[in-house]
Design a protein that fits this description.
single chain, alpha/beta, 5-stranded parallel sheet, 8 helices, 41% helix, elongated, phosphoprotein
Length: 217
């Protein structure tokens, strides 16, 4: 899952990003609304965690732009105000969910994951295919009933492949969904991660390489 965190309190923004990355999400961070609009114009995000009171361009205007563009991106709006009127206003602007500060990080994670499931064809919370069971909320993976321990990026790649439901996913798509914008696009990190993931999932291999196209399960 690719997430953009937009928050002008840099310590909070960086802490949120670090926590989301530990949950195997690819996260970019910006600290004002103008930078958010720039990133949204370049990258495809599943979820934007958007502070409402932003400098340069207000968070409300960022949200309106996402709606205006007809993007499938879901918006989780954050604000220091928990008044009902503020929540209603944020949702009417186009936010998909609303979370007042201060918030429990576990709730933020759950809301981001719930919104991520709504960016495409609805899928069940637990993904199952080819003997693999993947639970994004618990960050657990089982193959034929045996638990498989995966590093965050391995988990992220497997989740993208599982969500594709048998369709081929290119290396570029995996790079976009599982890594942030600071990753060198010419790196071989996708190939290396897929190789390690195959080894950990065991025999017979379930990740198929489609020459010239990418990977599928």
């Amino acid at each position: 899952m690719r997430v953009l965190v937009v928050e002008d309190e840099q310590l909070l923004a960086d802490a949120v990003a670090t926590g989301l990355r530990r949950e195997a999400m690819a996260v970019d961070v910006v600290y004002d609304g103008a930078a958010a609009l720039e990133r949204i114009g370049v990258n495809d995000y599943d979820v934007v965690v958007l502070d409402r009171d932003l400098p340069v361009v207000h968070g409300d205007d960022v949200c309106r732009k996402i709606v205006e563009l007809g993007m499938p991106t879901r918006v989780l709006m954050l604000t220091a105000s928990g008044d009902v009127s503020d929540r209603v206003e944020g949702l009417e602007i186009g936010a998909d969910d609303y979370l007042p500060k201060p918030f429990a990080f576990s709730e933020l994670i759950a809301r981001v994951r719930a919104l991520g499931r709504r960016t495409s064809v609805p899928l069940p919370p637990v993904l199952e295919r080819a003997g693999i069971k993947l639970d994004p909320n618990r960050r657990e993976v089982f193959r034929d009933g045996q638990e498989v321990q995966l590093a965050p990026k391995e988990f992220a790649v497997l989740e993208v492949l599982m969500r594709s439901e048998g369709a081929v996913v290119s290396a570029e798509q995996l790079l976009e969904k599982a890594w942030d914008e600071n990753t060198d696009p010419f790196t071989n990190v996708v190939r290396v991660t897929v190789m390690t993931l195959r080894r950990k999932l065991g025999e017979p291999p379930v990740i198929v390489t489609v020459p010239g196209s990418g990977y599928r399960i």
